[in-house]
Design brief:
With 918 residues, the protein is mainly α. Helix content is 63%, strand content 3%. It contains 38 helices and 8 strands. The strands form 2 sheets. Strands 2-3-4-1-5 form a 5-stranded parallel β-sheet, with helices on both faces. A hairpin with a 3-residue loop joins strand 7 (404-406) and strand 8 (410-412). Helix 16 (430-455) packs antiparallel against helix 17, helix 25 (647-664) packs antiparallel against helix 26 and helix 28 runs parallel beside helix 30. The radius of gyration is 33 Å and the shape is elongated. The chain starts with 36 loop residues before the first helix and ends with a helix.
Length: 918
């Protein structure tokens, strides 16, 4: 799944040696200050090294997951967003609205539908799409939901319901890409893995492909309600033959393979039966002739019949004749409506006029709601009443059939009723519209402040609620899980409120809502929606002249652009943010923007610019006393130093970051710094210390239930185990990591696991299997745009091809890998490739050429203090001198290599050299 144009960062691993600078995509978290910053840089085109027996390979990576690929969003390996953990891999959910007790016999239609499904399943044929069409109020949705409940046992993998808003007043139809994002999330795909990008068509295609893949072998039922066109729903259709799709629409959607089922108004007898049942009165007490006229006056539409019967039930003193008189009068008042709408609108009017004045006002204000479904808290904000009163109104309106109940104690207006309520509200309540939108936006700001208190990381700033929210009643969100669940439910409604507020020129609310939604959208996406939101907020801030708010919006836009791997656009937005912050002397905002700029430059291997930005950000954070900001800048600076092979500086910066994270109680920051320290210590040859750091990081990720980072830590542990001759332990760790990545759909991490397993196969003597795995990893890295991963795979491929006698192919791989590494500025990786290449030349009876390569590798390794590559180079030089000048020559170099190998604990290499010396 996953989309992502995001970024992934990755580990290095190298062939015999390793390095892995992991990367990480954090599938979680958020918060401006915490952002994944540095981490995302995790190693993007960064450095790796590997050390292994023969001189193994380099490692590597970067991950610029650009392009719509099924990959996890970029989350820096070190630092996940504010406290967020990976979304659980939920199974396909059961989200059908509840079946209605008022369903009236449609035996013919049900028999045809159930028979069609049964026949297709018994014959093993693909299930056709069933399109249910008919006029408004005829009961299309009720019929589809009822059929869905009847058929649910035949579709054990889940039943999903999506309202496409094809004809919802005040709302544009849901775009296919947005619907696919909702479906993928409901089917258990972490939202960070859902493809995003600026090319709407490409994003929709990528999401559709992922959706088809997700349901390929499933038996699931999908109801697409209120479709506007076949084009809207076509991308949502599963590809597998075992899924049933029911579509409802007011239009006749004609296509090739569909079974079209028209739902007409009820037959008069059935309409009478429905009326009698819902009225709660004996049939003989109503008068058959009067009831027949009542159902005829409302066109025998189930919606109208239900409303009329409810009116009579709530008025015991009325007779059916009384009701008929009122309906006729209401119908005359609405005579300007078209014939098809007149009857239903008349029933609305009759039901509305029967409400108490305060409930009428509440109902009218529901028409102002920009979103789709609402709960009592939103109702309270719209109606200017308490939550208790709002709940009472909503329950009463539901009893009166004026609103529909949705799962989770939520309510939704039928499209026709929404239109009716908006029409009533438009009759002289224009200012009420603006005030109602302002009230509901203020409510969401207050609730978002509560939710953000649970999801941002310790020490991160939480967007404050407006001053006028002190009396706003907010939902009880007691935990991070509660907050994420509420945010997921309300996301579409909040974004709809932003659009409506922007249309009403309520720019201050637009800016505040965008800032309050930023932490969640960083974590959960979809990032294409986040891009649109922050663009809107930046423009709104420009209208108000608020430079600080404009800087905040541009900074968030830059962060999200980074997540989608749109690096030039990210740099532009972040530079603009720095300019805006400078204009108002906002040092905190400027520091955050610089920190983010440093991450982008790190990801694009502009290491000097990255180090400069992080150093400047760190200085500002220290002036401000911002401890979390200091930790983030230090961590990102440490990764940049490591990518530049400045290992001592990397350890110093990362150690300071670790101390601050622990001081703040930030477990994610602690785990990420531990893991990065493990990578640096591994490159420096301190394998015991590296293993301890990686294990500690893994334990914290386990505690946080972060499977993505668990997998990255496992890969790092596997590298250390391989370098310390625990080959089976390495194989187990990499296989476990690959299982996690495969289940999560994290393609970059999986490619890295495959590459490491290729190295394990080479070390154990199966060069043919190693080549197969390494070529698989190479293809994946190239598809993902990861130059670092490509270089690491090429380095290892060169070694493996040399073993099987493919000398020309090996040299070609080394040459290409070396070009990439030099372009990235990865000197440790460069030394590793030179050692591999030197080994190939030596075994090909070209010791003079081999020695030149080992000399270059030795110079690089000593310059950056990479002991394993230094030992390999010394061993290579000694063996070349022994061969060129005769036995006894090169002894000093060989003994120096033994000294380093012993310090590193690489006993196999020591034994080989001592046998030669003897």
């Amino acid at each position: 799944m996953r989309l992502r144009r995001g970024i992934a960062i990755a580990v290095v691993a190298g062939g015999g040696a390793v390095t892995t600078m992991l990367v990480g995509l954090v599938t979680n978290a958020v918060s401006d200050e915490s952002r994944w910053p540095g981490w995302l840089g995790w190693l993007q085109e960064h450095a790796w090294f590997s050390f292994v027996a023969l001189g193994a390979a380099m490692a590597g990576l970067t991950a610029l997951l650009a392009g719509l690929s099924e990959t996890r969003p970029p989350t820096p390996p070190g630092r996940p967003e504010d406290g967020a953990g990976p979304p659980g891999a939920a199974q396909v959910l059961r989200s059908l609205p509840r079946d209605t007790a008022a369903f009236t016999d449609r035996a013919t239609e049900l028999e045809r539908l159930v028979g069609s499904v049964r026949t297709s399943q018994e014959r093993g044929e693909g299930l056709p799409v069933h399109v249910i069409d008919g006029m408004p109020g005829v009961g299309k949705t009720t019929f589809a939901v009822h059929a869905g409940h009847l058929l649910s046992e035949r579709f054990p993998d889940g039943q999903l319901f999506v309202n496409l808003n094809g004809h919802t007043p005040g709302r544009t139809p849901v775009q296919a890409g947005e619907a696919l994002a909702s479906l993928l999330a409901a089917a258990g795909v972490p939202t960070q893995q859902i493809p995003v990008g600026d090319d709407v068509g490409a994003v929709t295609e990528a999401r559709a492909a992922m959706w088809r893949s997700r349901l390929a072998d499933k038996k699931a039922l999908l109801i697409l309600d209120n479709a506007a066109s076949y084009r809207q729903l076509e991308p949502l259709l599963p590809g597998g033959s075992g899924c049933l799709v029911l579509v409802t629409s007011r239009k006749r959607l004609v296509a090739n393979e569909e079974v079209v089922m028209s739902v007409d108004a009820l037959p008069p007898d059935h309409a009478v039966e429905l009326f009698v049942r819902l009225s709660g009165r004996p049939a003989d007490a109503l008068g058959r002739d009067v009831v027949e006229e009542l159902v005829r006056l409302c066109g025998c539409l189930p919606l109208g019949v239900s409303l009329l019967a409810a009116r009579l039930r709530h008025h015991p003193s009325w007779t059916a004749e009384d009701l008929r008189g009122r309906l006729v009068a209401a119908r005359d008042r609405l005579g300007e409506l078209h014939a098809g709408e007149r009857a239903v609108a008349a029933t609305f009017d009759l039901s509305y006029r029967d409400l108490a004045p305060e409930r009428q006002r509440f109902f009218r204000h529901l028409g102002f709601f920009p979103g789709t479904d609402l709960d009592p808290h939103v109702g309270a904000a719209l109606g200017e009443v308490s939550v208790v009163v709002a709940r009472r109104h909503l329950e009463a309106l539901y009893d009166d059939h004026l609103i529909d109940e949705q799962p989770g104690s939520r309510y939704r207006l039928h499209d026709l009723l929404r239109d009716y309520a908006r029409g009533l509200a438009a009759e002289g309540e224009g200012m009420d519209h603006v005030q109602a939108v302002r009230r509901v936006c203020t409510y969401y700001l207050a609730a978002l402040a509560v939710a953000n208190g649970h999801i941002v990381r310790s020490g991160a700033a939480v967007p404050p609620a407006p001053d006028d929210t002190s009396r706003v009643e907010t939902p009880a969100l007691e935990s991070r899980a509660d907050a994420l669940s509420w945010l997921e439910t309300e996301r579409a409604n909040v974004l709809a409120c932003v659009r409506r507020a922007n249309g009403l020129d309520l720019y201050d609310l637009v800016v505040r809502l965008a800032a309050a939604m930023a932490p969640f959208l960083r974590q959960a996406g979809p990032w294409d929606q986040a891009v649109g939101l922050h663009r809107t907020a930046a423009e709104a801030a420009r209208h108000t002249g608020d430079q600080r708010a404009q800087g905040d919006a541009l900074a968030e836009l830059g962060v999200v652009r980074r997540f989608t791997a749109s690096y030039p656009q990210a740099i532009e937005a972040l530079n603009d943010a720095v300019t805006a912050y400078d204009a108002v002397d906002d040092r905190r905002g400027k520091a955050d923007a610089l920190n983010q700029l440093g991450i982008v430059w790190y990801l694009t291997a502009d290491n000097e610019d990255a180090a400069r930005a992080q150093t400047e950000a760190l200085a500002l954070y220290r002036e401000l006393g911002d401890r979390l900001g200091q930790a983030n800048a230090l961590a990102d600076l440490g990764m940049t130093h490591r990518q530049m092979s400045r290992f001592d500086a990397a350890v110093e910066a990362q150690s300071e970051a670790l101390a601050i994270y622990r001081e703040l109680g930030d477990r994610y920051g602690e785990a990420n710094s531990l893991r990065d320290l493990g990578v640096a210590h591994c490159l420096m040859g301190a394998y015991d210390l590296a293993a301890r750091h990686h294990q500690e990081a893994f334990d914290i990720y386990l505690e946080l239930d972060d499977r993505v980072h668990q997998a990255y830590a496992l890969n790092e542990l596997g590298v250390v185990r391989r370098l310390t001759a625990d080959i089976e332990g390495a194989r187990t760790a990499h296989n476990q990591a690959m299982t996690h990545f495969t289940e999560l759909g994290e393609r970059f991490g999986r490619a890295t696991s495959v590459r490491h397993l290729g190295v394990v196969e080479r070390v154990t003597g199966d060069a043919t299997q190693a080549i197969r795995l390494l070529e698989e990893a190479l293809d994946a890295y190239r598809e993902l745009g990861s130059r670092g991963g490509e270089a690491a795979s090429l380095s290892e491929l060169g070694v493996a091809r040399g073993i099987v006698g493919e000398r020309d192919g090996a040299i070609e791989a080394f040459q290409r890998g070396l070009e990439i590494l030099r372009d990235l500025g990865d000197r440790c990786g460069e030394a590793e490739v030179l050692n591999h290449w030197g080994t190939l030349l030596f075994t090909s009876d070209e010791p003079p050429a081999a020695r030149r390569h080992f000399d270059q590798a030795l110079m690089l390794a000593r310059d950056i203090r990479c002991p394993l590559e230094e030992a390999r180079a010394l061993e290579g030089i000694g063996r070349c001198d022994w061969t060129i000048d005769g036995p006894g020559h090169g002894v000093d170099s060989l003994r120096a290599a033994v000294t380093v190998y012993r310090r590193l604990g690489v006993s196999a290499s020591v034994d080989d050299i001592e046998r030669l010396l003897v």
